[in-house]
Amino acid sequence: MADTSQLVSGVAERYASSLFDLALEAGSADAVGADLDRFQALIDESDDLKRLIASPVFSAEDQARAVAAIAGKAGITGLVANFLKVVAGNRRLFAVPGMIRAYRTIAARHRGEITAEVTSAHALTAAQEKELKAALKGVTGKDVAVAVTVDPSILGGLIVKVGSRQIDTSLRTKLSTLKLALKEVG
């Protein structure tokens, strides 16, 4: 069976790269990034939108109409709205979250930053995010763009991934390690 995560990654990177090239040409790379972030927030907040994006049951036309309506209500226009319509028409909506992550990475690289994927048990405050960026800059020596994902199942702490390096200080991992250690003793 084919590894679908690799397939999604390749599709997402190609679409994100094309969108970034168009955004650079139009001089609106930051505005496009903000619109993509807004659309990602909508996905994160709505189970129905997640279902629409992931389900092959909906036709391309239904997906395109729904995405156009959602984007219009959210004030997402221009390049991103057209991009979402094209993605829906090409039956690639399932890869939109990957496309958004890839766009962030490409944009950060263009600005001379590196991207850190951070998983937290709860949303970070602005002060916490600023402190995390400063700590990561001290370690990497470069400016760091942080993409935060909230996952309550890690219970506490953070999982930080920068490039191929991952630092897992989550409470879930610490409890699992303790559980294994106790099994070995007893």
Automatic annotation (TrEMBL):
It is a peripheral membrane protein. This protein is part of the stalk that links CF(0) to CF(1). It either transmits conformational changes from CF(0) to CF(1) or is implicated in proton conduction. F(1)F(0) ATP synthase produces ATP from ADP in the presence of a proton or sodium gradient. F-type ATPases consist of two structural domains, F(1) containing the extramembraneous catalytic core and F(0) containing the membrane proton channel, linked together by a central stalk and a peripheral stalk. During catalysis, ATP synthesis in the catalytic domain of F(1) is coupled via a rotary mechanism of the central stalk subunits to proton translocation. It comes from Shinella pollutisoli. Keywords: ATP synthesis, Cell membrane, CF(1), Hydrogen ion transport, Ion transport, Membrane, Transport. It comes from the Bacteria. Belongs to the ATPase delta chain family. This is ATP synthase subunit delta. It is found in: Cell membrane; Membrane. Pfam families: OSCP. HAMAP family: ATP_synth_delta_bact.
